[in-house]
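Annex B. Sample input.
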Amino acid sequence: MSLEGRADLHAIVVSGRRVYAFDALSGKLLRSRDTGTTWASTSVPPIVDMAIDPAQPNRLVASTEMGLIVSSDGGRGFKPLVRLPPSHLEWDGEGILAVGEDRVAQRIDKDLRTINQVGTASIVPAAMTLSDRGPLLAADDGAVYASSDQGRTWSRVLSAIR
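Annex B, continued. Sample output.
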């Protein structure tokens, strides 16, 4: 990316040519519409993770220490959504799956109005991803876990090398 050496990027998410990333050095959300050639920024609280609505790439949800915040304008402005512990987020066709530092797995419907607890994870994920054809994957302390039921239950699929 064009910011090499000038930023410490975290919580990077991509949709088409759009790239969003939290810069820990400046404390800003960086936004690009051209796959990182040019950037704009927005002041935000520190972001743990982000998820982009696959149907509306201008709609972005971010997890912060104060809960989830939502942007409907491509990250230019945010509004509070719901108070949840800092969480890792994945947005699929049904909405968002959030797994927080409290290990609670929450399902947030795609309208962003309905939230249901769907389970308790056996881990606090350091990273999480949802594959198109497979399970939800999460990493914790060097091991990888998989969930085939939207975070209700987890199985270790790869142990840490010690």
